[in-house]
Amino acid sequence: MIDFHGKTVLITGAGGGIGAATAQLLHQAGAQLVLTDLSAEMLEPTLQALAEQGASPDRILALPLDVCDAEACASVLAQAAARFSDIDSVIHCAGIYIYREGMVADLSAAQWQRMLRVNLDGCFHLCQAAIPHLRPNSAIVLVASVAASRGSAMHAGYAAAKSGVIGLAKSLALELAPSTRVNVISPGLINTAMASAMVAHRGDAVKDAIPLQRFGEPEEAASVIAFLCSGMASYVTGETINVNGGMYIG
Questions:
Q1: Mean pLDDT, residues 190-210
Q2: What does the alpha-carbon distance between residue 141 and residue 180 come to, in Å, rounded to a whole number?
């Protein structure tokens, strides 16, 4: 029921985790893909997986992108628009997380600023660069975190940045309506490389606290993203969808 034939989708953080799973799902649904990550090498596993699905190279544009660089974001969006005549959906998965980074009292200004620069400023740069290239009836989906709603000891910078992502999305939803819908998914603990350190140290304790009694899979987050980008969510904007197995119900 979700059909992306004739649609162009840009995905950041597409080298792994939720971004890679979303790329594979939307390729199967017919989308043309603009895939970005910090380096070309980081995109190789996703491109290999897509090739194994039978992806045609003319439906995929893979570009390195540091979302902290506003000019680089503008360049990538311009290249994507030139290749595919503008964008139907922007999905922002890029971000960083450091397990047990430190208590607020002990964080350096540099640690704090890095979390905000990548996880919040990068989101702003990408969205700002995308706006001139969005087609009518387009969608933006930003990836936040359960930490934005619950807070997270030892990860205040990450939680603050992801809270900011939600605030940015709500503001964009108001500014870009009615042409573009803007929504957020807020994952809990998903089986990705980003979460691997937490799983290694506290896996059973964390799992026991999740009502569904398991970690999420990237494909489960990707399916919600696909819904939010599709016509099936045509009357949904400014919302944050929790994908966390019940870790936070708000």
A1: 86
A2: 11
pLDDT tens digit sequence for 61-90: 999 999 999 999 999 999 999 999 999 999
DSSP β-bridge partners for residue 33: 9, 60
Cα separation, 112 vs 52, in Å, equals 40
Whether 99 is a known active-site residue: answer: no
245-248, long-range: CB within 8 Å, 24+ apart, which pairs? 245/188, 245/189, 245/210, 245/211, 245/212, 245/213, 245/214, 245/215, 245/216, 246/210, 246/211, 246/212, 247/146, 247/150, 247/188, 247/189, 247/209, 247/210, 247/211, 248/146, 248/149, 248/150, 248/186, 248/188
Q: What is the pTM of this model?
A: 0.96
pLDDT above 90 for 214? yes
- The one catalytic residue in 97, 158, 235, 248 is 158
CB 108 within 8 A of CB 85: no
How many residues in the chain? 250
Rounded to 10°, the helix 70-84/122-130 angle is 40
Tokens of 39: 């380096």
Asked whether 33 and 229 are in contact (CB, 8 A), the reply is: no
Which residue blocks in 85-155 are alpha helix, DSSP H? Answer: 109-116, 122-130, 147-150
pLDDT in tens, 155-196: 999 999 999 999 999 999 999 999 999 999 999 999 998 888
